[in-house]
Structures are given as structure tokens and as C-alpha cells.
Amino acid sequence: MTATLPPQYDPSSLEAEIYQRWKEAGAFAPDPAGGGAPYVIVIPPPNVTDRLHMGHGFNNTLQDVLIRFERMRGRETLWMPGTDHAGIATQNVVERLFATETGQTRHDVGRDAFVERVWSYVRETGGTILAQLEAIGASCDWSRTRFTLDDGYSAAVRRVFVQLHQEGLMYRGQRVIHWCPRCGTALSDEEAEFEDEEGALYHVRYRVREQGAGSGEQETWITVATTRPETIFADVAVVFHPDDERYAALEGREAEIPLINLAIPIKTHPLVQRDFGTGLLKVTPAHDPNDFDIANALWKTPERPDIMTAEARLADVPRVPAALRGVDRFAARKQTVVLLEAAGHLVKTEPHRHAVRHCYRCQTVVEPRLSDQWFVRMAPLAKPALDAYRRGALAFVPERWGAVYERWLSEIRDWNISRQLWWGHRIPAWYCADGHITVAETTPTACATCGGAVRQDDDVLDTWFSSWLWPFATLGWPEQTVDLKRYYPGHTLVTGPDIIFFWVARMVMGGYHFLGKPPFRTVFLNGIVRDPKHQKMSKSKGNGIDPLVVVRDFGADALRYTMVAGSAIGTDVILDPHDLETSFGPARNFANKLWNVGRFILSHLDVPTPAPATLDSCQFELADRWILSRCQRVTTDVTAALEKFRLNDAAAAIYHFVWDQVADWYVEQVKPRLYGEARGGDVARAILAEVLRTALTLLHPIMPFVTEALWEHLPRAQGSLLVTRRWTVADASLVDVEAEDRFARVQALVVAIRQIRAEYGVAPGTAVRVQVQAATIEATEAFQAEQRTVERLAKVAPLTLGPPTKEVGASAVLPDGSAVFVPLGDAIDLHRERRRLTAEVARLDGLLAAQAAKLANIQFTSRAPAHVVTRERAKEQAWRDQRATVAEKRAALGT
Q1: What is the largest CA-CA distance in the chain?
Q2: Can you give the pLDDT at residue 217?
Q3: Which residue in 26, 546, 702, 866 is deepest, having the highest Cβ count within 10 Å?
Q4: Per-residue pLDDT tens digits for 573-598
Q5: Which residues, 6 or more positions from 762, have their beta carbon under 8 angstroms from its beta carbon?
Q6: Which helix (H) or strand (E) holds 771?
Q7: Residue 522: in which H helix or E strand, if any?
Q8: Distance from C-alpha of 636 to C-alpha of 623, rounded to nearest angstrom
Q9: Residue 806, pLDDT score
């Protein structure tokens, strides 16, 4: 059986061949003829610009565990793969490449030539990450791979745009949006992320104009606090809260904008915070969304002066002082402050920490900017998605993220979906010279209103506007395809909590609005891969780990097991990028352990081996009944853990079964029978085969390669693939509580003897006498039944039952109360051991005396930090405990 199995497990020589065999067998494609109910996961489509990183490795491993588990349970599984065109990210990458290659910008060559260059790049690299996912064992149905810019998908995007426009849920309007000067495009609220920054609050004096010529009244000034003094040139009003009595007399009067002396009205509005700054707010509607709303409330057609260019420089307009025109916004801020101070308008500057929005792609500070954009009305779309969660039709794992989802949908704002890019889905809207808008799925020949010539909108759609259709557009919608009818709605979405707003919630809204059903029932949100300092791994920080390096050096199974074992629900995975051996070595060792155990078992299955069900259970020894019972327990535990998304618990359960129970105990127990030294070899081989089948089946979703490599060598498995083998089902009739209890007593006895041997330095090859006084009849029976096992595993000669003799030795008490005594006179040099232990007691006494003096010193305990004193007291207690243990061991050896 093991002739073709190398003595050492070498994943690099096996994994690629095994994966190819799976693909050639069509193992990843759903089989409608199989009779199982569908189970569908859609992959969060990675960007075509990305290479596989540890976040991908983590997320896709979890998906693959679930899909393999359900496939083996007989479900008709579809794991839908694909990639996202990633508008901003891809355009940024290609623009940099293009500049390096040609020294030109996209504007130098024009839209068509640049877009073709992007397509060329995508054709070269777009499939790279999917190929890399194969290296970690992702069992997607690659025949269905989709791309968010392929023809069919693009048709779905256009259909959605047109339908929303027809329903009055899509509109074009002028509003203040988030603008990234670096990327040159608008962003949605979710793409402009808040980050706390240290800034300043500038208190600026505005002169209040006199009410009438020659009135002779005393000159009046007001002070406005602002974080952006460079925008004062775009002010249209100064407002205060209607209930703020401090300024009540100023309502209706005018103030002058500093430096340009332009008069603006003083008004009231309830949105003003009376306790912020001075209680006065400068209204700049073209450069702040709240100011935009205030101006709309104050005037039917408000003035909205725009003083900022798309590059975030002060514009060349009359309102801006000549010295500031063309100056970058941050430099202009400093220069404006200098000018204000010189003119006597700066009252004071104070530190101010506040939240500032940044572009989620390039981290540039976002600029609020007045712009014509396309928007989606979100409140009507959000209602069914919110209701679905509240009535339990949509579940989050862990549940706490459901509250985040609910809060966002409850407070949702309209979605800005137009982007000032060239790469992406071009907005299907056309304009004529008269300002009419024609929205259509196909290119119109003329304006639908007046028949005039039309030009298409230059903007493209937000990338998320296409990816929110992913669960159904990938299945052929808007056509009513067979796949759509069969595989929608899906079941589980596995993703990160950072895109609940970007993607998860929007997919739910899209699913309900366009198909009347949610796209999935459960959202399983994995944690984040972090380094030991709990920093998120990234290439820019230099703390990332290349998953393909891990696969090369440790194997894909080691990567997968490490990820799964470290992923308790909702928690982050901590890995050390500077010590891959510590991070992935234990999982590689586990794969090697399984390989060695598997080879050993297979080496004894080279003769016909009966199935356990055909054997007479009367031939079973205690260990046989115990391991068969443990097989049922671990099957139940692993199945339940996977069903409840406790993947780490499943990994731990099968690990301990393979290593602690099969390798350390059962294999060792049956060796005499396998080698003909005891009767029952056929029984032992039959049960070993069943145990190995169970272990490989349960472990396969987590470690598919090593399990598949061993599976093909099992009797009755030749020619079959483990990837499509049916999941193990626990047999309740084989659960044997009595056998588990009795064998646990034997294990406790062996462990106790091994501990005594280790504590007293008994040489590994030296046998010891052991006397056990059993606490119960059950214990006596267990020790008698497994006497040879105890003697062999604990190096005992002999094991006797009864009260201990009056000799020098060591003792222990087992959990059931049984007493163990090991005479040591013929196993070690008692005199030398006494001297060693006496010296150790003396050494600890010296340490304790010095520590007691240190802690009695009032100068130390009063001056040292509290945590240092606490640490020193803990050290003293640890030494005291060690001394007690050593003294007890010395006393056991007599005088």
C-alpha cells in the first residue's frame, strides 16, 4: 500500500498534481444530477490588479472549507469565482505604468487609446490572482469565472441603471460630494473614510456693517471659528442658532468677508452648534455638505461660489486674492492665516483634533466639492434589506455586526455613483445641446426628447455599482437562465467587516429590489490578518506575508490549517512576518504527523481487511471500542462546529483526534497485534482503516492535499477522490461511554507514570516497578485489561495491583482516586538524587531570602512602579511554590 508513498511528506511534489486531478475530474462543478440541494457561495471578487495576499488567503480558505464540507455532505455546491475591474485602483496602476513607458498621461493619448492600454494590462494580469488561488486549494467552479466588465455583466449593469432611472430612484443633481484630488474623482460616503487628525481652530474676526450711513454707532465685530480659513472667500452667510441670545441683535445685518470686504448676510439656522467655537458658523455651500443644506434652506436659489480647482488649488476667480490663486489648499491655508493676522482679523489659533475624510484608495485628504453627479435614492432600497434583518431572514456571524448593518441602513444617504474616470462602466446617459438627458441600455442615435445630436456622459460608474449585482449578474441576469433559477438565492457570504457598507448591504438591497429575494442567508464575517503588534498586514508597512512563499516553504495545507485554527469567530489572526517557522511550522508538523501515521497504517493494510461492521464486536478490545467511540464523538463535534461556522473548533477537534488519540494512543496500543505478538491483528487492521478514513474525511475541508494523497491508497478507495467522497456520519450505536471512561483511566495511569519518570530523571530505557491501588472495581478491571498496554507505553516491569510496599519512591493520585506508587531504589541513584534536590532547596532558599529582603525594603516598595512591585511579589510566590514541590520530592526519597 505504501510502495508509492515517499517516506517524507513533500507538499511541493504532490499539491499541483493533486489539484490538476481534481480539475480534470470536474470535481468543483455542481452536479444537478446528484440529487442534493444547492449550496452557493459567491467569491468576493478580487481586483484584477491584485496579487494574492494573506487577507485573500485567509478569506478564501474559509470559503473553501465551507464549500468542501457541503460538497461532501452531498449538496450541489457552486462556488462562483471572478474578478472585479476595480475602477480607481486599476486606472491608477496603469496610469503609473503608462507614464513610465511613454512619459505621457492619459489625456495626452485620449480616452480610447488609454482604455485599450488598460484592457491590454488586464488581459495580461487579470487571471493571475485566480491562478494563485488554485495554489492554496480553492475549489471554485472555474468554468463559470466572471469579470465585472465582461459583455454579459455589462448588460446587467446597464439594465439596472436604466430601471432605477425609470423608477425615479436614479437622478442627476448638483451637490457637494467627496472629491479626491489625487485620483481625480468623486467618492461615495463610504469611500471617504474618517481619520482623526491634529489640526487647528482659527478664530477669525468679521466686521459687521453699520445699519445706516452716518449712523454713528460703534463699530461691531464678530468672531467665527473655522478649521478651513482658506475657504472664507466662498462664504455666503454667517449664521447662528435661533435660540442663541448672544447674537439675536445681529440677525438681518451684514458682515464683511475678511480680506475681500464682500458683504454677506447674518442669519439663523437650527443646525448651528451653539457650543462649538463661538457659536457662529460661516456658510460655504460649495465646499461643505452641511453648508450646502443650510444655504438651500435659507434661499430658494442660493449662491454657491466655487473657489477650488479639481486639483485642490485655489481658483483664479475674483473672490480669491491674487496672491492665493493657484496655491495648493494646505499652503493656501497657511498663507491665508498670515494675511488674516497681518490685517488684524486673526483673534487666536488653538489646537483642534478632528475627524478628516481621506480617500480609501490613496489616503489623500478628501476635498468637499460642488459637482454635478449621478445619485441613487437609497432609502426605498434600504427598507426591504433592513426588514429582512429585523425579521431574521438575514443572519450575521458574529451577530454583533448585524447591529452595524442595521444602523447604517437606518441612517443611509443617497449614493453618489458617478466617477470621473475612464476605466469602468461608462454611464449610459447621453446629453443634447438643449440639456435633455437620454438614458438607454444601447447607444441612441438621437435625443429621445428633441431628436438632436447626443454625446455620452464622460463619467463611469462606481465600481461598487457593478459589484452589488454580483450574486445574480454572475448567473446570467437579466436573462432568466437555468443557473439563475437553480442557484439564486445563494446561501453564505464570507467576507470582511470592512465592506459591510460598500458591498454586503448593497448586495442585499440589490437582491431584494431586482429579484425580490436576498442574495444569501448568512453573512460570515472573518477577522483581519495582523502582525504581533496587532497592525493590519500590508505591503506598504512591510509587515505582510506572501501566501505563495508559505505554500512553497510549508505547503498549502500548513497555510490553510494555520488560518483556520487561528480564526475563532470574529477574531483576528495574528502571524509574525519575521518568523514564519513559528507561525506555520506547527501546522506543517501536523501534516507530517498525519502523513507518518497514515503511512504506518497503510503499511499494515496490504492484506484483505474486513470492514468493522462485519466483525464480531466480541473480538474488540477496550482500546478498539474506545477509538470507535471517539470516532463518533469527533465526527459529531467537527460536523457541528462547521455547521455553526466555528471552523477553529473543527480544526482543534480533528487535530487532537489525529495526534493525541490515534497517533499517541491507539496506534501504539495495537502494535503488538499488528506485529503478531498478540491475537486480534485482523480486528486492529480493520479498525485502523476505519479510523484513517474518518480522520481523512473530517480533515479534508481544512487540509485537502495531504488527505487526498493518503486517501487514494486506502483499500476500497482506489480510483475515487476524497474531494467528492460523502461526509462521515456518526453512528450512535458505536458510542461507548463505558469504554471511554475505562480507557481514560488507563491513559491517566500512563501519564502519571511518565511524569514520575521525568521528574526523577529515570533513564528512558530503564523499566520501573509500579504499584497501583485502584479506587473502584471499574478501575481494577480497566488496569487489568490494559496491563500490557500500560507496561509497554510507560516502560513498566511489572505493574501490580494492590497497596504500595514500604519502599522509597514517588506517588501520585489519579483523577478517579486510584493511588500510584513507583519504587525508585532500583531505577535511580537515590543518594545522588537526594543531594541534587537538597542543593536545589538551598538555592531556592537563597533566592527567597534575597527576595524577602528586597520586598521588605520600604524605599523599593514605595518608589518602584506598582507593576514592578507586583511582578517581584509574583516572582517570590513562584519560587516558594517551586521550593515546596522540590522539598516534597526530596521527602519522598527518605533520609
Answers
A1: 122
A2: 61
A3: 702
A4: 999 999 999 999 999 999 999 999 99
A5: 756, 768, 824, 827, 828
A6: strand 768-773
A7: strand 522-525
A8: 20
A9: 86
With helix as H, strand as E and coil as C, how does 348-363 read? EEEEEEEEEEEECCCC
CA distance linking residue 104 with residue 92, whole number of Å: 14
798 SS3 class: strand
Torsion sign (Cα): 446, 449, 451, 455:
negative
Collapse the DSSP code of 428 into the 3-class scheme (helix H, G, I; strand E, B; otherwise coil) and give the result.
Answer: coil
Report the pLDDT value the prediction gives residue 216, as an integer from 0 to 100: 55
Phi-psi region of 207 (alpha: psi -120 to 50; beta: other; left: phi over 0): beta
Rounded to 5 degrees, φ, ψ at 830 are -65, -40
Neighbours of 17 (CB within 10 A): 10
What would the grid cell of residue 265 be? 448676510
In the chain, the amino acid numbered 589 is N
Instruction: State how far the alpha carbon of 866 is from the alpha carbons of 430, 734, 847, 875, in Å.
Output: 72, 57, 21, 14
Closest CA to 489 of 28, 36, 39: 39
What the block records as the C-alpha cell of 801 is: 495491583
**One-character DSSP codes across 530-542:** E-TT-PBP-TTTT
Instruction: Of 727, 725, 718, give the one whose Cα is nearest residue 698.
Output: 727
For the chain, what is the mean pLDDT? Answer: 93
Residues 235-293 have pLDDT tens digits of 999 999 999 999 999 999 999 999 999 999 999 999 999 989 999 999 999 999 999 99
Q: Report the distance separating Cα 587 and Cα 561, nearest Å.
A: 6
Which positions ≥6 away from 481 have C-beta within 8 Å?
475
The dihedral region occupied by 520, where left means phi > 0, alpha psi between -120 and 50, and beta the remainder, is beta
Cell representation of residue 541: 508597512
C-alpha cell at 566: 487561528
Cell of 612: 468493522
Q: Hey, what amino acid is at 583?
A: S
pTM of the model: 0.87
Question: Of 518, 572, 564, nearest to 395 (Cα)?
Answer: 518
Q: Which three cell numbers stand for residue 476?
A: 446570467
CB 226 within 8 A of CB 284: no
Task: Give residue 734's pLDDT band: very low, low, confident or very high (50, 70, 90).
Answer: very high
SS3 content of the chain, % helix, strand, coil (to 5): 50, 15, 35
Half-sphere exposure of 888 (CA within 13 A, CB side): 11
Q: Which residues make Cβ contacts (< 8 Å) with residue 420, sequence separation at least 6?
A: 184, 185, 186, 458, 459
Strands 796-801 and 220-226: what pairing? unpaired
Number of helices (H) and strands (E) in the chain: give both, helices first: 29, 29
Cβ-contact 192, 363 below 8 angstroms: no
Residue type at 357 in one-letter notation: R
Looking up cell 487577507 gives 55
b/e per residue, 432-468, with b = 16+ CB within 10 A? Answer: beeeebbbeeeeeeebeeeeeebeebebbbbbbbbbb
Cell of 515: 429579484
Helix axes 704-711, 580-603, angle to 10 degrees: 10
Q: What whole-number distance in Å separates Cα of residue 37 and Cα of residue 369?
A: 51
SS (H, E, C) 179-224: EECCCCEEECHHHEEEEEEEEEEEEEEEEECCCCCCCCCCCEEEEE
Q: Rounded to an integer, what distance in angstroms lies between the CA atom of residue 475 and that of residue 421? A: 28
Could you give the angle at the alpha carbon of 152 between the alpha carbons of 454 and 413, nearest 5°? 70
Contacts 24+ apart (CB under 8 A), 390-393: 393/518, 393/521
Is residue 150 helix, strand or coil? coil
Q: Which helix (H) or strand (E) holds 14?
A: helix 11-24
- The three grid cell numbers given for residue 523, joined into one nine-digit string: 453573512
